[in-house]
Amino acid sequence: MSVKKLSDIKYSVLDLATVVQGGTPADSFKRSLEVAQLAEKNGYTRYWFAEHHNMVSVASSATSVLIGYVAGGTSKIRVGSGGIMLPNHAPLVVAEQFGTLESLYPGRIDLGLGRAPGTDQLTALAIRGENFNAVHNFPKDIIRLQTYFSAENAGSKVRAIPGEGLDIPIWILGSSTDSAKVAAAMGLPYAFASHFAPTYFMEAIKIYRDNFRPSAQLKEPYVMACVNVVAADSDYEAEYLATSVKQLFIGVVTGKRQLLPPPVKSMDNIWSIYEEEAVMQMLAYSFIGSGETVKNKLTSFIEQTGVNEIMTTSHIYDHQSRMYSLKLFAEIIKSAAYAPLNQ
């Protein structure tokens, strides 16, 4: 693992089109576009949406539709999936959808792939129908996708039109070591969901790097870590804003999901000791604080992990505070190249 500096890394955004209390999915979509436009102006590399289903606070279920919406409202930033959950889709349909997106917005589309359904089992059954019990082979489906995208598939009886012959980068997403092995064996870039599943992060990226086989798409291992970021003018304000995501994650722990709530002055009367421990474990890779605080924590994280790219996700209730956090994070990265961050 090469030692990297904060100024060496790329930085990106993961969006779940989070619905806040008092808001609607329509509001979330409009805000997502505004965030993406600001991200583009501030040097972010890519803007990804995550596919989830049957979650009241997550409106990014029709992932490819939102990718097209945001790509159409921006001009340079890469837009993609973090990820498309392959068990829910036929590879041919994914190839056609992303072939369409790449045809509309050439050179700007990413296809991140996950091996889980992105939902509970009952909802997965509703999505997959009679295919629910069919054998699902993640690596084979990835190979099918690569085949559909290849120019060599022109002679096949089944073709992806559009999609065939297009250069659409494929990423492997994961929250365990299994996906690391797949990404390494196939020579594909690897994005880890450390923003909610930190337990196997260090082990997974080591397995990925140790077993990486160069491919036509990628010559050396490339690791992206997704982390939670809440940046503000002071540590106190950032911690206050972060109570929203903590409340949201209580719903993940208990199964009682809710829309993203407003921040509170204290969490003491909101969570139990068990819930607090579970939530804070899930949020282990979170960067919350002033610009200087976040910069110091992030610098240590980069030196420890050697990741190539940071993908930020920010569950912040107030839209303007979320926008400001995104802008401040970009300034943190940029400032690392030349001087200490001005407070």
UniProtKB/TrEMBL annotation:
<dbReference type="Pfam" id="PF00296">
    <property type="entry name" value="Bac_luciferase"/>
</dbReference>
<protein>
    <submittedName>
        <fullName>LLM class flavin-dependent oxidoreductase</fullName>
        <ecNumber>1.-.-.-</ecNumber>
    </submittedName>
</protein>
<comment type="similarity">
    <text>To bacterial alkanal monooxygenase alpha and beta chains.</text>
</comment>
<feature type="domain" description="Luciferase-like">
    <location>
        <begin position="16"/>
        <end position="308"/>
    </location>
</feature>
<dbReference type="GO" id="GO:0016491">
    <property type="term" value="F:oxidoreductase activity"/>
</dbReference>
<dbReference type="InterPro" id="IPR011251">
    <property type="entry name" value="Luciferase-like_dom"/>
</dbReference>
<dbReference type="InterPro" id="IPR050766">
    <property type="entry name" value="Bact_Lucif_Oxidored"/>
</dbReference>
<keyword id="KW-0560">Oxidoreductase</keyword>
<dbReference type="InterPro" id="IPR036661">
    <property type="entry name" value="Luciferase-like_sf"/>
</dbReference>
<dbReference type="InterPro" id="IPR019949">
    <property type="entry name" value="CmoO-like"/>
</dbReference>
